[in-house]
Amino acid sequence: MICYNLSCDNGHGFEGWFSSSGDFERQANAHLVTCPTCGSGSVSKQLMAPTVSTARKKEARQALVMDQAQKETIAKLREMVKTIRANAEDVGERFPEEARKIHYGEADQRGLIGKATAEEASALLEEGIEITPLPVLPDDTN
After folding, report:
1. Rounded distance, CA 118 to CA 92, Å?
2. pLDDT band at 2 (very low <50, low <70, confident <90, very high)
3. InterPro entries recorded for this chain (predicted)?
4. Rounded Cα gap, residues 55 and 74, in angstroms
5. What is the 3-state secondary structure (H, E, C) of 49-64?
6. Which end is more exposed in the chain, N or C (fewer Cβ atoms within 10 Å of the end residue's Cβ)?
7. β-bridge mates for residue 6, sequence order
């Protein structure tokens, strides 16, 4: 996981976690990265100092990772994702097709989860179909 310092065109700063630099670029290009303060989709990475791993810094870095507020936030996000998954139909790769069917009244209204490429997600948003990515949490990819 990579943590980027981000900012929107309104000057709000925030952090974003991504599985890779390419993952950030794909999500940003599909307008899936938005400012949590104002909702702006015009988001860019800020200049960051590289993190160099040393034995002396390991204990301090673990203290940051294990911060109670972060633990609570991740626990809440995990619970949110669990609730969404429990109350939605996982349609996998058929997500764009099924989302369109619901949007255009060709299928019953229901919660969906599934997979879409950045291009597919961007096309759905351009059609006015409201979608949002589920967060990938730190332990989900480790």
Report:
1. 15
2. confident
3. DUF1178
4. 26
5. CCCCCCHHHHHHHHHH
6. C
7. 14, 45
Residue owning tokens 């203290």:
63
> Which tokens in the block code for residue 105?
């009244």
CA torsion angle 138 64 4 136 (round to 10): 10
Please list, in sequence order, all residues whose beta carbon lies within 8 angstroms of the beta carbon of residue 139, skipping any fewer than 6 positions away.
Answer: none
> Residue 31 is encoded by which pair of tokens?
């307008």
Q: Which two tokens stand for residue 119?
A: 């291009």
In this structure, are residues 98 and 124 in contact, taking their beta carbons and an 8 Å threshold? Answer: no
What is the per-residue pLDDT across 66-103, written as a single tens digit (0 to 9) for each? 578 888 888 898 899 999 999 999 999 999 999 999 99
Average pLDDT of the residues in 43-58? 67
Residue whose pair of structure tokens reads 């929107």 in the numeric block: 8
Cα–Cα distance, 67 to 95 (Å, whole number): 36
